[in-house]
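Invent a record, attention on tokens:
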Amino acid sequence: MGKSIFFVTLISIIGRQLPSFLLLFLSAQGLAAGLGSYPHLVVADSLSSPRNGVRVTYLGTNGYQFEFKGHALLVDPYFSRVDLLSVALGSRIQPNTERINDGLRHLATKADAILVTHGHFDHLMDVPAVMAKTRARLIASASSVDLAKRAGALSGEAVKPGDVRRIGPWKIRVLAATHDRLFGKVPFDRPPSQALAKAGPPQRAADWICGEPLAFLIEVNGQRIYIDSGGTLAQLPPNESGSRRMDLAILGMALPDSRARLAAALARLQPRYVLPSHQDDFFRPLSAGFQFGPLTDFPFVQRDSAQQNRSRLILLDYFRPWTLPAAVNPKSQTPNPKKD
């Protein structure tokens, strides 16, 4: 049976049970390209690269590790990569211990903190297990902290936009954010008071509610990194164009809402480097290699980024660290045109 016939048959059988956005994922599987189509954009440290700066490691989905002088900070670590049908059919899902351990082998053994942008399973589900392994503290919204605790986390610090935390060498500003809509709705979005009313741990994808989305501005080593998991035009990043430029902007680009606000976000942040995030097919195991998600549109991201000619567009592969270069001229922070 050909691939297209297979998916038509599969969709016809379970179509009534799937949200429309999952139908799109099923029908588009295998059509997206990988990083091999953009080798000139992929950056990574070489053996001769300086290691005294801020090292950035991509963990898949919207997950990152930042390292500086023996300290590590994690954002949205997710290694389990639950399969699409389990999510679509409302089956019980749980962290995959083997995949989590495989992912953690690439990372620092101890982390200062884990920042979580929102409560969906592909951002929060693995956090309790990662906390136990790395002894990191959790910093997230109130609803995400509650979910993490019900899933086994022993502690968590609830934060809201405007809060500032200083942990080791990291200064972390908590910022307001929104989540992309799909067909007019945020996936798995219910008021925390309703979603968290029942006792017991979250068991299905829909139990991992979005909650209150957050973004973060991380300052370390005299450099500034902005990170979110996506968003809408209703909530743009802080306007940094009148001050010192952002060194790195990591912007979620999974869905159309994120792409619609890309130009405005870049105009406000004026980053030296822009890294589009949440672009891989997060239903595939990390071991299968990077493949763009079926609903992403990287050529669009390229075009919009090219209009910001002071920002350099980059991509990262799984578990291949890259050290954020220091600004050539800190006063102007003009991007280094040389290839890393």
Remarks:
- Residues 180 and 186 are 6 Å apart (CA to CA).
- The two ends are 45 Å apart (CA to CA).
